Amino acid sequence: MPHDLFTEYIESWADWARVYQSIPAFEPMIRCIFRKEGLPPAAVTHLTPGTNAVFRVGGYVIKIYAPASAGFDQSADRQTELFAAAHAQALGVKVPDIVAHGVLNDRHPFAYLIMRWIEGRALGSVLETSDPGGQLLLGRRLRRLTDAMNVPCPPFNDVDVIADPERSERWLPYREAFRAERQAYIGRQKFGTPVFSHGDLCADNILVRADREPVVIDFADAVLAPPCYEQALIAFEYRGYPAFLRGYWEGENLSAVAERVWNGILIHDFGGDIVKNTFPQALAWKSTEELQAEICRMLAPAFAGTPPAEL
User: Fold this and answer.
1) Contact, 143 vs 252, CB < 8 A?
2) pTM score, two decimals?
3) Cα(278)–Cα(240) distance, rounded to whole angstroms?
C-alpha cells in the first residue's frame, strides 16, 4: 500500500482545519480506498463541511476521520457512529446504508466510513420553502422518527451526559451563581431512564427525500441520555418555524414542553453554546429560572391557540 497519497502534514487541529475540505488533498487517497473496497470510481465533490472530511463520490459518501496527530482521538466517535447508525436502522429509522469502513495507513492512519448517497435536501432548506401546512407535516414526521429512536438501549460508549465534567465546559462563561445552580439542579433531578439519542438533529443532519420522509445522518454524537436531551436541541434548532414545532409537539401543552426543553438543554453537550447564541443576555443571568422563562417565550408561538396546562 503506498504511503504518499496524502502529502499534507497534520500535526495540530489547525493543520486539519486548513485542509479537511480540500478535494486535491484527499482525492488520491479516496481513489485508493475505493479500489480497495471494490467500489466504482467517480468524481469527488464537496458536501456540507463538519468536523471530518466528507465528500460525495458518485453514489456514495465517504467520511475520513481526522487522524490522531490532529490532537483529537476520533476512534470513539467512529465506533459510536458505526453502532448507532446500525442500531437506528434496526429501530426502523431511515439512515444511509454503511457499505464499508476501515483504516488506510498512509502518511497518517486515516479511518474512513463509506455510505450510500441519499438523494434529499437538508431539513433547514426544506422548511425555508415550505408553507405552514408543510412544516406541520414535517414536524409530525420528525416526532414519529424520534419516538421510534428514543428508546432504551444497551450502553455503546462511555459517555455520561449528567456526570461527565467535560460536558459542563460550555457553561464556563456563565456567571458563577448560574453555574452553581445548574450543577446543583442536575445533580438532584431525576431525569428518567436513558434512551438512545442521536444527539445532534440539526438542520444539516436530517435530509428530506422527495416523498417528504426524513432520513437521519451523522451519528457521531449519539449517546444514551434522558428523552429531554434530543427534544431540547430540536426546540432551539427549529425555533424559527412555529408550525414545525407545533406538529412535533402536537397535543402537548407549552408549560410541560418548556420544562422538558429546559431540563434537556441544561445537560446537553452543546447546551451552553446554544443558549448564549440564542439569548445574548444569557451570560448575565444569575439563575437558571431566567433561562426557563426565555424558553417559554421562545416556544410560545408554536403553542398559540392550544389549551393551557392543567393546574
Assistant:
1) no
2) 0.90
3) 11
